[in-house]
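hey so u asked for the seq, here:
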Amino acid sequence: MDYGLLIIGIALLVVAYLVAVKKQTWLLAGFNEKAIKNKDLLGKVTGGVFFLPLGLLVVMSSLIEYPYEKTVLIVAMLFLLTTVYLFINRRLLD
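ran it, structure tokens below
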């Protein structure tokens, strides 16, 4: 059991809750708030499609050891990040 990964996973789950449910989009850095059409959808997409699955994967990786664990985490993170980035750029920006 890797306690460092467990803490990171729980932190990601907390951020997912704050962004997706509580609509705390100020936690998201690197975007122009005036260019976003729908901030509620932004919160749901980033919290529910990026932070939630990544947090669950990190928590599961902290509990279960398997081969190529770091590679799986990096590939999953990059895939989720690319998916959310493309969705936001195509649907939510003016």
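The mean pLDDT is 91. Residues 39-63 form the longest helix (25 residues).
lmk if thats what u needed
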